[in-house]
Amino acid sequence: MKKASLILLLCLIFFITFKKEEQPQKIILPNTIKVEITGGVVIPGIYELKQTDTIAVLINLAHGFMPDADIKMVDLNEIIKNKKYHIPFKKSEVEKNYKYDLNSISYDELLSLGIKENRALEIIIYRKNKPFETLEELLNIKGIGEKTLEKIKDYFYIR
């Protein structure tokens, strides 16, 4: 009996000691996307969000805005549409007075002015087909209405 108990105890110790470690399962959340945020946020980076989350959720994950972030063009209620967002910084008085030629401004410069990625791309595509002749032609860009035009028109001129 003692011999059987001893063998049973040794088998138990053996199985406990050499038990194969189970690999942790990766939890894949349904309907999630990875979104990068850069610029005027406390912790820029890549965050995993639900496809139904808003910009406000992304900003919250990035621990909020930096004090010098230019948030006037940020719509916190907008549902996440892009995989990358850039929050521009406020321009100094000298930079605010600097104007860009709408027919030659780069994509990155448009982003630095607070124009969203999709709109910046639409501006570049529009002018490749037909150069801008007036600032009011920005109203032909999807997503740019009267209010947005009022906010951004002072940054541009037409050559």
Automatic annotation (TrEMBL):
GO biological process, any: DNA repair
InterPro entries: Endo/Exo/Phosphatase_dom_1, Hlx-hairpin-Hlx_DNA-bd_motif
UniProt xrefs under Gene3D superfamilies: Photosystem II 12 kDa extrinsic protein
Protein name, entry field: Competence protein ComEA
Positions of the Helix-hairpin-helix DNA-binding motif class domain: 136-155
Name of the gene this protein is made from: comEA
SMART domains xrefs: HhH1
Highest taxon above the source species: Bacteria
Pfam families according to UniProt: HHH_3
GO molecular function: DNA binding
